[in-house]
Amino acid sequence: MSRQLAEWLQASNYSVVMTGAGMSTDSGLPDFRSSSGLWSNYDPKQLATVEALEHQNDAFTKFYQWRLQSLLDASPNKGHKILAQWEQQGLLKQVITQNVDGFHQAAGQQHVSDLHGSLREINCHICGRQASQEDFLNGSSHCPNCGGKLRPGIVLFGEMLPEQAIQQAQEATAACDLFIVLGSSLQVAPASLFPMEAKESGARLVIVNQEETELDSWADLTFPGASIQNVLTETNRYL
Ligand code: APR
Q1: What digits encode the pLDDT tens for the residues 82-98?
Q2: Is residue 130 located within the same domain as residue 226?
Q3: Does 146 carry a binding-site annotation?
């Protein structure tokens, strides 16, 4: 199966990879919906919302301080590095990611659409002014400029996604002839809509995910139960 993926990559004029939290579990960061995922221990509605930011600010801030520190203590894994190498070799045009860890860019990927923003950026919820990670981590949770609450630059449930990232992702999805999903349960729109849009515009669809997704039956190739790093390493051998 990895040989087939390598052949499709070599034959492709415009390949796109879309990643989810499963891309960073090998870096030691939890995903959200697998049995050991974040949402099995925390209720996203109690934490990952503007409501939580405004009315449960202590719990909100502690949760994102912990996630930011975990991310700063971790690093991109071999899978991130292989994708950056494929971009350099002209095999991969665009990465669309739902992840907020910045590991694709840290691994050298140039063309990345961060659909859900970045946990590395801290800003004021009211005036938008940037604040430092240190300020956020050491608990100064108010903006020096306007007194508003500090928050990570990620998309909270119910918030709009960054326009430019969405547009980039839509253009890449429409233009691609190969769309590869890595480590996503495909349960959160609009990201979960892109694989079918690619398929409907004639692209081949490949899904690499440890657990089954609702789109597996539409995919041209799936790697059930496989680990992303193993699939990317195996595929790399044929390139
Ligand atoms: N190899 C392959 N698959 C993996 C690996 C791995 N090493 N590690 C985890 N997975 C799979 C899990 O089985 C799971 O199905 O990755 C998938 C991750 O799915 P989710 O946890 O739902 O994460 P994701 O799809 O990125 O969630 C989308 O939901 O909560 C929001 O904003 C959050 O961006 C996130 C969005």
Answers
A1: 999 999 999 999 999 99
A2: no
A3: yes
